Each structure stands twice: as structure tokens, then as C-alpha cells.
């Protein structure tokens, strides 16, 4: 435990020095606010006052006191951090700071009036407007920038922001302070006071089947129903959509009092006789879909996984049912957010009489299921109609009894005994297909479900002009709690007029689709298992095998010291006399030359046999490497680079630092996090660091082309994170209690680490080595 305690104290220093730097910035911001106060007061008593004394009092209320409190705190804490000694105590300083929160309470109570007064004064007084638009904040002592200019409104918000910040820091400090340290109870006390204070002010600040017959007298039946996300007036809404014999009805569940039975509210309906699907050309002027950035979705998945592990712990320790209920509720809210915000494939419905509606789906498979179900009903002779309000009421009333999908598809709605799905890697070989009536350009995509909805994970190449495509391509698909695999077969559209009008519009025609259940018992064999999916007359042959998480990561240290795969990076760079291994430079160069605009580069798997061929050539250091690279499918080159990092005997960011990366990324305070994450890079061996920085710059360049290649920083972090960072054998052994939970949570954190560096302003090797503290100015 001696080393652990030492590490905890080291983390304390990183957290504190980060916090001090942001405290310095905060004091400078308060100073900038106070600067105009004196001259304003001086003019207030003259014949030409800019503001009255009353107005000055209101706008600058309590700023001077807050400034003094923090200046004193900073001056006492600074020397302690600079002359660091592991026995240093500073809990009393934080406790004192917390005890002075009453001043903040007064500030918060006055905050709205202060803002309104400042706003009114600057409208009526040009001089004051000039002053309040640009207040000069001086930069930190060691930064290049001498000043930044900030508006008064932004500065007045800083104290409110600061309380939240110091609460985060207390939280981080406690996490890294041993419980028997004299500071521990003091910090706990300070945290309790701050949290109570925060919850008291947050309230003040935040403004923040057969009911009816068809016109022909047939019984109207429910054909299909399910939850879809509708984009309505610019915001995403979860709807329950009902498809009846002759009408599509979009409803939402009404909030009802306890005990009352639930009711649906009809948002709109379209008789199928009037319903058309706009073609891509027509949808050009449709509203653009606002796509939520991937990193926000991944952050949320990370939160969900963390809550899952927490719930498992509570259950294992026979925890209180109240705590479990609370976690369940939180889990539901987070999963609901994910369900609402992840779909991005547009599904448009148009009513001939004028109105258009837009749903967003996460899977093309589901979109085509809805489309086909509607088109099948439209083959019948349908009549247009208008429902009277009574008919509509009866029809909507019947929805509740008739519905087949009862629960929103989130995991928190599943029963405990339902299969949690598979976590690990599914290897799929798509062999061939037959049964096409005429020859076409054909390809397949694979979808699996994760977090309750389906997403597309792999895509074969297009086999040109054939009725019997032979793809024989192997893919490795990562499963996060998956239960089904879907295969879709498309005809590629090369017609220029139809191509990608809308960013996510898929214009290729679906020739067939099918799905199979992934049965954990059947799949978990070492051997390939061959299967056929039949879809409207087409048969697709494929094989698959599954490796669970803990199996797939047994890194086999290579006995051979020749070659590059599985050899330590330091050995390779020394042998080549290079800073970055040749294989990394060559693959990166080739991807930048001709793969940077390839849709899904690094996400879409290359053909396994191609990758093996490239691996052999690099290992043999063959003269023909360059010729082979220039001819090879670009996804195979991207795959070779990923394989190289995956087969390193030790992950690029090292086993030793893995626990520290996990701790650093979990810090809540931005300045502490920045300090810690830079410190960790500095601690890497040179070959690892230089190669990592080289890869980082490359991935940033790939993401710049996101509008074309659809690969955001986030997508790239998801692909590379788990490859560059993994717990060592010993680490994962210790935790194999619930592999899936630990894993999904760990993988999320690995993605976050890489994303952190990808989103960070450029990091240079020399500056990193020179600088012991590293700050961006406004923290």
C-alpha cells in the first residue's frame, strides 16, 4: 500500500497545481471586473455621471469581497504546492473557503438584477456600453498572451461557475487523499458544505386492433407498430407509430395520473392512399438533420456502463432497493437520451395534400421494413378519407390495447433474467450470394444491435455486374451487448443524379435482408460455423465465430526479434534507426495519399487475407512493399496499421501507465485533468510518445475530411482507443468478475483518453519535454 499512497499523493499534487492555475485565471477575471468600478464611482458624484451610485452597487455587488476571499486562499495555497511535500496539509484552507460561501449566496441572489441593470445601463449609456463590451483580463504569469478581452456579462457569470468548479476539485482531491490523512475529514466537510450550497442555488439560477372500419367497411387492423424518433420543429421526439390497414398514425403516450390506464395522443395521421415517399431529389429542400456529435453519444454510453457496473455491485452486496431504484431511474434517463439522439438515417413521409414528416432511424434495415410494410398495403385499392374527431378518438384509443411493442427499447426495461447479449468480437466471413434475377453491382452490409438499437458495422466491396457475387471477405465486429446480426444486400447506385443529396440518405437499393439471433451457446466455439440467410429468393452464405473480450486480448509476446509485428516498438525503432516505425509511416502516408476521402476509413474492415499478406511483406522487410502498398485496397492498409498496434507485445500507451490514464481521464476538474494527461504523455518512453504524437496528427487530418469520409474524431477514437490502451493481463485477471461490465466501462474510458488528446490543441514533443506544467489559458 506504500506505493499506492505515494501515487495518491502524487495525484493530489497534479490536481492542486491544475486548480491553482485556474484559480489564478479566476482572480484575474475578478480583477478585470473591479477595474472600471473605481473610475465609475468617481464620476457618479460629478455632474456627468456614467452610472448612479445605486447602479454601481447593484452591478458590482459583492465582487470585491469574493476577490479578497480568493486572493487570500490563493496566496496561502500557492507556496504549499510549490514547495510540495507529501505531508503538506491544506484541508483547512478549503474548509475556510467553503465557510465563506455566504458571500456567494448574496452574489447569486443579486445576479439576475445585476445582469438586468448592466444590460439597461449599456443600452442607455454609450460610454458604459463601450466599457462593458471589452474588459481586459490579464493572462497567467507564464503565458505568452498578455491580455484577453471579455464582456462584462461573461465575467459576471464566472463566480457562479466557480462554485461548481471548486466542488469538482474537492471531489477529485478526496478521491486521491488517503482516509487516514489529516486533510480527509476537512475536505469532506468542505465538500458537504459546497454541495448543499450548490443544490440550494441551482433552483434559483436555472430558468431552465380493430376499433374502426375502413371507408370500404373492412375491419381496420394493426399491421405494425414501434417506437421511432420524429424530428418535429427542430427537436427530436420519441413517438409510437402505428400502421393500420389504410392509415399511418403517429402518437405519443400521454402522461396520466397513477391508477388511470394509459392513453395515446394522436400527433398526426396520413391515409395510406395519400402517403408518398419523397425521392432523394425532392428531399433536397427538406430540413437538414442536426446530427449529435459522436463523442457525446460515446460519453453517454460510458455513463450507462458505469451505472450498470454500479448496479451489479449494489445487487451483489444485497444493497438497498432504494439505491438500486435510483440507479435504475438514472440509467433509464441516460438510455432514453441515447435512443433519442443517436439515430441519423432520414425516413421521410409525405402527405400528397401538403405536409411532410421526418423520422430518424439508426438502421437502414428498420427503415426498409417500415417502407415495405407500407408499400405492401398500398398495393391494395385504397381510398382517401378524413377521420371525424370521434373516429380519431376511437382509433387512438384502440392503440393502447392493440400495440405489440410495449416498452421503449432500452436495456433498463429488460428483465434481469433476459440475456445481456454478447460482449467481444464476432468474426464474420461473407462468402457469396445467389438467386439474383439479373446481373447487378452488389454489396452487403452487416448490422448488430448495441444499447437497444441497431447500427451498421461493416460493408463488403462492390462485386460488379454479376448474378453470383463471391465476396469472401472477413470482418471483425465489436459487440457491445449484442443479440442479433443482420445482413443487408444492396445494389450499388452509380447514377450521378441520385447520389448523396442528403448527408445520410442511402440511395442504394436493398435487394434483400435477413437476420439471425446470436445465441451465446452456439456462437462460442473456437471453430467457424457456416450458415445461410435466405431473403426474398436470395441466399447469402456466411461463416462466423465469436471470441469473448478476455480471450481476444491475450497478447502473445513474439519470440522472434526479427520482423515488426509483435516486436517491442523500442527494438524496432532502434533497429531501423528511426523515430517512428517504418510500417506506421508507410501505412499513414498511403492512407493520406488515397484513403482520406474513403467513407468509413479505419472503421470498415479490410479483407483479412489482404491484411495477412501485407503483414508478411512488412515482417520480411520485402523489397516489393511499396509496389504492393500502392496496389492494395486502402481498407486493408488501414487494417494493417490497426493490426500492428494491436499485436504490439505491450500496448503503445504501456501497461505501466494504464491505471494512471484511467484515473486521469476520470478527473472532473479540467485544469487538473489537463495537467495529469500531459504529465502522463511526458512519462511515456520516447519511441512510444513520438509514434503516438505522429498517429495523433494523422488522425486529426483524417477527421478534417469528416464531411466526406464520415469519420469524426470520435469515430476514430472509438476505433483506435482500445487498440492503444489496454489493461495488462494481471489487471484484467483481477477483475474478471463481470467481464462484460468491466469491459464495456473500460473500453469507453479508453475511447475517452484518445479523444481527449485528439481534441487537444497540437502537442509538440519538444514543448512537452520542456514544459513541466502545461496550460491552456481559459480554464
How are the secondary structure elements laid out?
Blueprint: H1 2-34, H2 37-44, H3 53-59, H4 63-82, H5 91-99, H6 101-124, H7 126-133, E1 135-138, E2 147-150, H8 152-175, H9 183-205, E3 222-232, E4 235-244, E5 247-253, E6 264-271, E7 275-276, H10 294-316, H11 321-341, E8 345-351, E9 356-361, H12 364-378, H13 389-402, E10 422-434, E11 440-450, E12 453-459, E13 463-466, E14 470-482, E15 484-491, E16 509-517, H14 520-523, E17 529-535, E18 538-548, H15 549-552, H16 569-576, H17 582-594, H18 608-620, H19 625-631, H20 634-647, H21 658-665, H22 670-682, H23 686-704, H24 706-709, H25 713-724, H26 729-734, H27 739-759, H28 765-770
Antiparallel strand pairs: 1-2, 3-4, 3-9, 4-5, 5-6, 7-8, 8-9, 10-14, 10-18, 11-12, 11-13, 11-15, 15-16, 17-18
Helix pairs in contact: 1-4, 1-8, 1-22, 5-9, 6-7, 6-8, 6-9, 8-9, 10-11, 10-27, 17-20, 18-20, 21-22, 25-27
Amino acid at each position: 500500500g506504500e506505493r499506492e499512497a505515494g501515487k495518491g499523493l502524487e495525484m493530489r499534487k497534479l490536481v492542486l497545481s491544475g486548480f491553482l492555475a485556474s484559480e489564478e485565471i479566476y482572480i484575474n477575471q475578478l480583477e478585470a471586473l473591479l477595474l472600471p468600478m473605481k473610475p465609475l464611482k468617481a464620476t457618479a458624484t460629478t455632474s456627468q455621471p456614467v452610472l448612479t451610485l445605486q447602479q454601481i452597487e447593484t452591478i458590482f455587488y459583492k465582487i470585491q469581497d469574493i476577490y479578497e476571499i480568493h486572493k487570500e486562499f490563493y496566496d496561502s495555497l500557492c507556496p504549499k504546492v510549490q514547495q510540495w511535500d507529501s505531508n503538506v496539509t491544506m484541508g483547512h484552507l478549503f474548509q475556510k473557503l467553503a465557510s465563506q460561501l455566504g458571500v456567494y449566496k448574496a452574489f447569486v441572489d443579486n445576479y439576475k438584477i445585476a445582469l438586468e441593470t448592466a444590460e439597461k445601463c449599456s443600452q442607455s449609456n454609450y460610454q458604459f456600453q463601450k466599457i462593458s463590451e471589452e474588459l481586459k483580463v490579464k493572462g497567467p504569469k507564464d503565458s505568452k498572451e498578455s491580455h484577453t478581452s471579455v464582456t462584462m456579462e461573461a465575467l459576471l457569470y464566472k463566480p457562479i461557475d466557480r462554485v461548481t468548479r471548486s466542488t469538482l476539485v474537492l471531489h477529485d482531491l478526496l478521491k486521491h487523499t488517503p482516509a487516514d490523512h489529516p486533510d480527509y475529514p476537512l475536505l469532506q466537510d468542505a465538500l458537504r458544505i459546497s454541495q448543499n450550497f450548490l443544490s440550494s442555488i441551482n433552483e434559483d439560477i436555472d430558468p431552465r386492433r380493430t376499433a374502426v372500419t375502413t371507408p370500404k367497411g373492412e375491419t381496420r387492423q394493426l399491421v405494425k407498430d414501434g417506437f421511432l424518433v420524429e424530428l418535429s420543429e427542430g427537436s427530436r421526439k420519441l413517438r409510437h407509430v402505428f400502421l393500420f390497414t389504410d392509415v399511418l398514425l403517429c402518437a405519443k403516450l400521454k402522461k396520466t395520473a397513477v391508477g388511470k390506464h394509459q392513453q395515446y395522443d394522436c400527433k398526426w395521421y396520413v391515409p395510406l392512399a395519400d402517403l408518398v415517399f419523397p425521392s432523394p431529389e425532392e428531399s433536397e429542400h427538406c430540413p437538414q438533420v442536426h446530427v449529435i456529435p459522436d463523442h457525446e453519444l460515446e460519453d453517454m454510453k460510458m455513463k450507462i456502463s458505469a451505472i450498470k457496473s454500479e448496479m451489479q455491485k449494489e445487487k451483489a452486496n444485497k444493497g438497498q432497493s432504494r439505491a438500486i431504484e435510483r440507479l435504475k431511474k438514472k440509467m433509464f434517463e441516460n438510455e432514453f437520451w441515447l435512443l433519442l439522439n443517436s439515430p441519423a438515417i432520414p425516413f421521410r413521409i409525405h402527405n400528397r395534400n401538403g405536409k411532410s414528416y421526418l423520422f430518424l432511424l439508426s438502421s437502414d434495415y428498420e427503415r426498409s421494413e417500415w417502407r415495405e410494410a407500407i408499400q405492401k398495403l398500398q398495393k391494395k385499392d385504397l381510398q382517401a378519407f378524413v377521420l371525424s374527431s370521434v373516429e380519431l378518438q376511437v382509433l387512438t384509443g384502440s392503440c393502447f390495447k392493440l400495440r405489440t411493442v410495449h416498452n421503449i427499447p432500452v436495456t433498463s426495461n429488460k428483465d434481469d433474467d433476459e440475456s445481456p447479449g454478447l460482449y467481444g468480437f464476432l468474426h464474420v466471413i461473407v462468402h457469396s450470394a445467389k438467386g439474383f434475377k439479373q446481373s447487378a453491382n452488389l454489396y452487403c452490409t452487416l448490422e448488430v444491435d448495441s444499447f437497444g438499437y441497431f447500427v451498421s458495422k461493416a460493408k463488403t466491396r462492390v462485386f460488379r455486374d454479376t448474378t453470383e457475387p463471391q465476396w469472401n471477405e472477413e470482418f471483425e465486429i465489436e459487440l457491445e451487448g449484442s443479440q442479433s446480426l443482420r445482413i443487408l444486400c444492396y445494389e450499388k447506385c452509380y447514377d450521378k443524379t441520385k447520389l448523396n443529396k442528403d448527408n445520410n440518405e442511402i440511395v442504394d437499393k436493398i435487394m434483400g435482408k435477413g437476420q439471425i439471433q446470436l445465441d451465446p451457446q452456439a456462437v462460442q466455439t473456437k471453430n467457424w460455423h457456416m450458415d445461410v440467410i435466405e431473403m426474398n429468393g436470395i441466399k447469402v452464405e456466411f461463416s462466423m465465430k465469436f471470441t469473448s473480450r478476455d480471450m481476444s486480448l491475450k497478447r502473445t509476446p513474439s519470440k522472434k526479434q526479427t520482423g515488426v509485428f509483435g516486436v517491442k516498438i523500442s527494438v524496432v525503432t532502434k533497429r531501423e534507426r528511426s523515430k517512428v516505425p517504418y510500417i506506421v509511416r508507410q501505412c499513414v502516408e498511403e492512407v493520406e495519399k488515397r484513403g482520406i476521402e474513403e467513407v468509413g476509413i479505419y472503421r470498415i474492415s479490410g479483407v483479412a487475407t489482404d491484411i495477412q499478406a501485407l503483414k508478411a511483406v512488412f515482417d520480411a522487410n520485402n523489397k516489393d512493399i511499396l509496389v504492393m502498398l500502392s496496389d492494395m485496397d486502402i481498407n486493408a492498409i488501414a487494417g494493417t496499421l490497426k493490426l500492428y498496434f494491436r499485436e504490439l507485445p505491450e500496448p503503445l500507451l504501456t501497461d505501466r501507465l494504464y491505471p494512471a490514464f484511467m484515473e486521469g481521464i476520470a478527473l472532473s476538474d479540467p485544469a487538473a485533468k489537463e495537467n495529469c494527461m500531459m504529465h502522463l504523455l511526458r512519462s511515456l518512453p520516447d519511441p512510444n510518445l513520438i509514434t503516438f504524437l505522429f498517429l495523433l496528427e494523422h488522425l486529426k487530418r483524417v477527421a478534417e475530411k469528416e464531411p466526406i469520409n464520415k469519420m469524426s474524431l470520435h469515430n476514430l477514437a472509438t476505433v483506435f482507443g482500445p487498440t492503444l490502451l489496454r489493461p495488462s493481463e494481471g489487471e484484467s485477471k483481477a477483475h474478471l468478475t463481470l467481464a462484460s461490465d468491466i469491459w464495456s466501462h473500460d473500453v469507453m474510458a479508453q475511447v475517452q483518453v484518445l479523444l481527449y488528446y485528439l481534441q487537444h490543441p497540437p502537442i509538440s514533443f519538444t514543448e512537452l519535454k520542456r514544459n513541466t506544467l502545461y496550460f491552456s489559458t481559459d480554464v
